[in-house]
Specification:
The protein has about 300 residues and is mostly helical. It has 14 helices and 2 strands. The chain has one domain. The protein has a two-stranded antiparallel ribbon with strand order 1-2. The longest helix is centred in the last third of the chain and has 27 residues. The chain starts with a strand and ends with a helix.
Length: about 300
């Protein structure tokens, strides 16, 4: 048996086990809280950073492996734990089966895991050098201000999507290059990573389609809740397509026509998928995130190889 947690405004937040019932999260609940499915994006971006540096070089693949763990299970896992703790009220509406609102991560465990994972992430970053520490610290700060009051960037979809795009794409890309180069990446690497981060703003917009009702009830200004599904979808498509068009221009300026043509082909396929997406934005947003977004990240890798020495 369990008692209900009553959250802000009297809403149900989750469950607290009664006496005699386990009062700590199981390993499975902990893993679910850290959301392994979300680790792919920063791990892929870190890999793009490694690729654009020409591989690990003298540092070896062991250091790259540490960087991949840092980008995914640690840094991204931290952001998920922080977000779920401060989102437990809206999750009770949108996704009540998540670990915290369901009571499978009871009491203050969610907050404790978020803090502990933050400290562990920072400690591991120090093993990889100053540029990685800088990138990791920036990502951790963004993770906390994204979810936690008083700033809580996720109240505004414009700023929140930008923060997530930078954290999931730009910072891991920068870190991957820095680990292999043992120095600050070049200006071209930083510019490309930033452009793909801006394009990811559209990916984050599509990801918010699943929580429109809860966002509106809790006053969270995600772009689908703020603009409506149709306008938000058009904005997402323009953002993603515009970023890749900018990459094509840069590749041509840098005299890399073969890589530019490959990115153009990937973008053309995405545009065809966007036509279907715009017919039913709300219903097809998950479908596009599984198809069009895959083409987007393949373009990232192509661009990374183009930058390799």
């Amino acid at each position: 048996m369990s008692d209900r947690i009553v959250g802000e405004g009297g809403g149900t937040v989750g469950l607290v086990p009664k006496a005699g019932v386990r009062t700590w999260p199981s390993p499975r609940a902990l893993l679910e809280l850290l959301k392994p499915i979300t680790w792919f994006a920063p791990i892929w971006a870190f890999g793009c950073g490694v690729a654009c540096a020409g591989g690990p070089g003298a540092r070896g693949w062991g250091v790259v492996a540490i960087g991949l763990v840092l980008s995914g299970p640690l840094a991204c896992g931290t952001s998920q734990a922080v977000n779920d703790w401060y989102d437990r009220h809206v999750d009770a509406i949108n996704e009540p089966n998540r670990p915290i609102p369901s009571g499978r991560v009871p009491g203050q465990w969610g907050f404790g895991i978020a803090v502990g994972w933050t400290i562990l992430t920072a400690a591991v970053a120090f093993l990889l050098g100053a540029p990685v520490v800088l990138a990791t610290a920036t990502g951790l700060i963004l993770a906390w201000i994204y979810s936690a009051p008083p700033i809580r960037l996720k109240r505004n979809g414009w700023w929140s999507n930008l923060a997530v795009g930078i954290s999931y794409e730009g910072l891991p890309w920068f870190a991957g290059a820095a680990v292999c180069l043992r120095a600050m990446p070049s200006a071209s690497v930083i510019v490309v990573a930033l452009i793909y981060s801006l394009g990811a703003h559209g990916i984050m917009t599509l990801n918010d389609f699943k929580s429109i009702e809860g966002d509106r009830q809790m006053g969270l200004g995600s772009l689908p809740a703020r603009l409506g599904p149709d306008r938000a979808c058009r904005l997402a498509c323009i953002t993603m397509g515009g970023a890749q068009a900018a990459i094509v221009v840069l590749l041509l300026v840098w005299r890399m026509p073969i890589h530019a043509c490959i990115v153009v082909a990937l973008l053309a396929a995405q545009l065809a998928l966007m036509v279907r997406l715009l017919e039913d934005p709300r219903g097809r947003a998950p479908w596009y995130n599984a198809t069009g977004t895959t083409l987007y990240v393949l373009g990232m890798l192509v661009t990374a190889f183009a930058l390799a020495p």
